[in-house]
Amino acid sequence: MTLSIDALARLQTVDEFEQAARAILPTPSYDYYRSGADEERTLRRNRRAFRRYQLWYRVLVDVSQRTLATKVLGTDVAMPILVAPTAYHQLAHAEGEVATARGTAAVGSLMVVSTLATRTLEDVAAVPGPKWFQLYVHRDRGLTRSLVDRAVAAGYRALVVTVDTPVLGRRLAAERSNFVLPPGLHMANLKEAAQAVAPEGGLALAAYVASRHDASLTWRDIEWLRSLSSLPVVLKGIVRGDDARIAAECGAAGIIVSNHGARQLDGAPATIEALPEVAEAVGAMRNPPEVLMDGGIRWGTDIFKALALGARAVLLGRPILWALTVGGEAGVQRMLELMAGELSRAMALAGCASVTAIDRGLVRPAPRE
Amino acid sequence: MTLSIDALARLQTVDEFEQAARAILPTPSYDYYRSGADEERTLRRNRRAFRRYQLWYRVLVDVSQRTLATKVLGTDVAMPILVAPTAYHQLAHAEGEVATARGTAAVGSLMVVSTLATRTLEDVAAVPGPKWFQLYVHRDRGLTRSLVDRAVAAGYRALVVTVDTPVLGRRLAAERSNFVLPPGLHMANLKEAAQAVAPEGGLALAAYVASRHDASLTWRDIEWLRSLSSLPVVLKGIVRGDDARIAAECGAAGIIVSNHGARQLDGAPATIEALPEVAEAVGAMRNPPEVLMDGGIRWGTDIFKALALGARAVLLGRPILWALTVGGEAGVQRMLELMAGELSRAMALAGCASVTAIDRGLVRPAPRE
Amino acid sequence: MTLSIDALARLQTVDEFEQAARAILPTPSYDYYRSGADEERTLRRNRRAFRRYQLWYRVLVDVSQRTLATKVLGTDVAMPILVAPTAYHQLAHAEGEVATARGTAAVGSLMVVSTLATRTLEDVAAVPGPKWFQLYVHRDRGLTRSLVDRAVAAGYRALVVTVDTPVLGRRLAAERSNFVLPPGLHMANLKEAAQAVAPEGGLALAAYVASRHDASLTWRDIEWLRSLSSLPVVLKGIVRGDDARIAAECGAAGIIVSNHGARQLDGAPATIEALPEVAEAVGAMRNPPEVLMDGGIRWGTDIFKALALGARAVLLGRPILWALTVGGEAGVQRMLELMAGELSRAMALAGCASVTAIDRGLVRPAPRE
Amino acid sequence: MTLSIDALARLQTVDEFEQAARAILPTPSYDYYRSGADEERTLRRNRRAFRRYQLWYRVLVDVSQRTLATKVLGTDVAMPILVAPTAYHQLAHAEGEVATARGTAAVGSLMVVSTLATRTLEDVAAVPGPKWFQLYVHRDRGLTRSLVDRAVAAGYRALVVTVDTPVLGRRLAAERSNFVLPPGLHMANLKEAAQAVAPEGGLALAAYVASRHDASLTWRDIEWLRSLSSLPVVLKGIVRGDDARIAAECGAAGIIVSNHGARQLDGAPATIEALPEVAEAVGAMRNPPEVLMDGGIRWGTDIFKALALGARAVLLGRPILWALTVGGEAGVQRMLELMAGELSRAMALAGCASVTAIDRGLVRPAPRE
Asked: Which ipTM score applies to this complex?
């Protein structure tokens, strides 16, 4: 079902990847991936808010030798562009998360593997390259602990705890197309737990979250999570500066400014709108957590803006799913190369030879038109 | 003419209720309900202005046990979502306001019954559950007094005096579709008075308001109104902080920030735009009146925003009419449950376990896109 | 060609008048009336800018007795809604400016008669009711003086000098439809002068303005103009506060904030945007000139906003032309009554029993949506 | 392929020139000329941003005698409207840059000839009239020096060094239509150098820039460039005030505020947005460089705004290409006359008899609508 290498090479933008993927995916799967909460206002805003910022580029800087390399939580990566945790990669490609991991490794990036993967975390970890594990905290603390233990054993380098999902947001588009996990696909890391809730599949996710996720999770539990392993803990889903400071005080090694791809609370700010406040809130702290962001990125210039506004790196969610759909491992690799190429060009044109040269002065809110 | 329970259950949003109702209602009735004044700028703005506010949610709060319960003027209600006074419910459903009252009571909410009801205030009062009576002050003070006396006798718990209608606004859409009260429907509370003006029905309302309502009403009359009974008096239709303070000084127990569903003065501010000023104006007073609002609410997140910006509760107008049309009593119940469910989800996702936890810091004007 | 009284009575808004007029007028005439300069940005903005202002109405004011009466330059008028000077009324109706004058007089308003009328200023003056004369200053000072003398003799009460037309703006739409004055129509006040320039008609106006208007006119000439008669001089076409102050110092009795119906300089501010600055600039002067405005008014609420922002009265241009087209004298009368009715309703709903009660606090810029 | 003189005379706006040119040009050529980088956000913004500014015109100024004459770098020009350097004029017209030069000279303007011309710089210089030479600095400093020497020998009066192109921006539209230089057309000034890179033509430009342009160029190299000749050096492509000050300190005689027709970095500010900062940054320096601008100009009022905001003159890029396509030399002449006529009219209507009278107070940001 994937495209030929030639056809893949002709895709020039993230939107073209999405269109090609849409032609391949069953409608419910496409709707599941694409949809956001309620009216999808935040979904649109995640993208559009990037346009609010302009690139006030510098000229006559030597940009003949450019590098995109950076470090995240001490791990070297070839580019400040990581793979966000997203569910159910086998909807997109038969090899699922394993193909994603291979494409990610091919370009020297890092993948965050979802609790809701359709391949086991061990299978994905068997692919070389650095990985973090995204964790949903379950009411069943034993289950939670076992996920952490498995992640440690498999060699994951950090735990990414999603904190914006005490209940599941309502994605009307996915409801309307009656999305269910197709026969043969499973939450591979949670097989038994999930079957207990919805043995037939069906609208498993909302039911699963309602019955199994821990809506009583608080900041105090972060310390408990940290005690489960020596892995650094990253909190994903924070948009407020005050929350970011609490996260830092609770020992979070990283913060991902995220609104869950606009799938939870419609009306939440775009992540690029929330990023500056979070970056400033922790910027002056001693040993500040690293700040990353995801949401709405479709162009290399979007990444440039995120780095300028305080992100150490960004994560790509849906673009990776479209790429996985159209090309499997090769698609993921091409998507990351495309984004890296665009970022590199933006850096050249803005006068930045390295990611550390991307300072806040290069990006300004656009004057009202 | 109403939908089956199954079809009703498939309606997921207020807009879907409206579309379903539109398919059922005669065009003039639909236009009468839907229309706003003149160009309908304020009508659109009532809805759109909610989008100006973003939900800067908090994470890692225990939201496993949530309650929507609150009190309005001392009455316990299960949710901060009341039924606004609207005219002529028999246009929507044969049982009219009685069905609305039943659906409202089923979820523990409170209904404000209109002077312009098509069922007598006594009939509606016979349905269990707390109710307030909306009052238009007539030039004929005897008639006005008799309405108050009847409301007291029937057990209404407050008088909601509409103060934004010295003359009737012009609703072009309703005029163009020649809306008249169909044969057999009456202003049940005003039968004789209305027939004296327009025995044939026709454009009864504008004529009725022009000839019978008291356009000379002033703040001084509020004291007289208060003297008619021991019921608390709520003033509906205020948008200014200075007017709100005068209302409080005149002894109003409550203020409903409202522009009459954008049916009176086109160009008036959206109610969510007016709410913060009103809430602040009376917030620092001793024994401040309770502040409520209506206008433009279509989502649970809209209600969340109104509560964050100072409303103790909101009232739903048109959404109740659509729900009454499509499902009678069951429709009204389902609409209120839908809104309550959406509000509850928004509270969970924003970190609020109760309505008192919804503070102003959670809502901010969106940055310009 | 005009509509029946019944059809006329069914027109409910200015836009409906325009649509009806468009169906009657030859395209070139319609385009001539409707068009603005260049891209017509200011043309659109003249209308849209009114939407920027909201009506923060007051309640519980006695508005049972309302009056729209006011005075302009000492003349009593029944409403603060005057007839702006516009060219060539015989394009719209065979009786031309005479019909306009009759409709204006019927409601107690005041007409400003254009130099470019198709009926002589004497013919128009023969219709009862107060009138001002709009004057273009010609290089031929003898001609200019003779126009003033004629206006005095005919009983005009003021001279309205247009100051925004040293050259004619380019109205692309009118050029594209090849507008020319049809056979039999003439600049009745300038017959000989005009024929000398363009005996065949044709694109007479741009050529006429270029060859005959005085592009060297300066503030010093205003004193000369004042010396020609004892009539008060009103300057029409000012948008800046500093220009307004100079006008006052030069003895102007009135200022019309106008951009010539957006027909001169595309990119000029909307007149409602310029009005507050002009009103403030002269407001603190001793014996300030009266401030009026035209441009973009289509609703009674627009007039309300203009009065609140400092205008003593407004002038209607195109709406009168549409009304004259569809109904001649009766059309003009109906248009003025429609606008007066809308203004009266807006005053009732905003808590104003007279035009002097319309204070600036009732109008505020809308929050960004 | 060009239009008749009559058809040419009927074109009234730049957009009409573009439409006419589009009907003549092969699609790839049209796309090459028209396209901007990536999403073309900056391309649209270059035009739209002019609308943000309003013309607060003055009245009663003597504008009967107007002049557009000015000086740029000491050269007298009849109008503050120059011809921007653009590539490949033979795509538009068989005579290429020679026709452009003739049309420019016919109205007393000045042409900036591109390094990427399809006619040799010597051929173009043979046409009378003042010219500047636009220079891309090559890694091969010998080639660079030889271009400078040739420009000096041919009588060019200034070097315009493009500083915004260390790599080539991606113009998706041109890529999608597979633009290549048609057979028989060459980079006439670089024949040998270009053929070494892409002997077949093809996507020569991106490859050429990548392999031959000097991405390591810095401010220090400007001094070296100045040392190559006695010609004044103008830096083209600056948008920041701080860069403008450095340019001045490096001895630049002029700065062109430009974003390369929005063909390089999508998300860059519109040039009219950048102009005020640049003008202010150098305005207070001793011997400040002259500030010019290009980008998005389509109307005489746009030019007026640029002059008011600090530009000594503007340059036209795409409008000249459309004009060259539709009319060759005569088309270029007509375009410049059209723009000059529009500017002159705007000056008359704003109260400016000369370009020096166009002060900043005449232009203000528009209030939000």
From this structure: 0.96
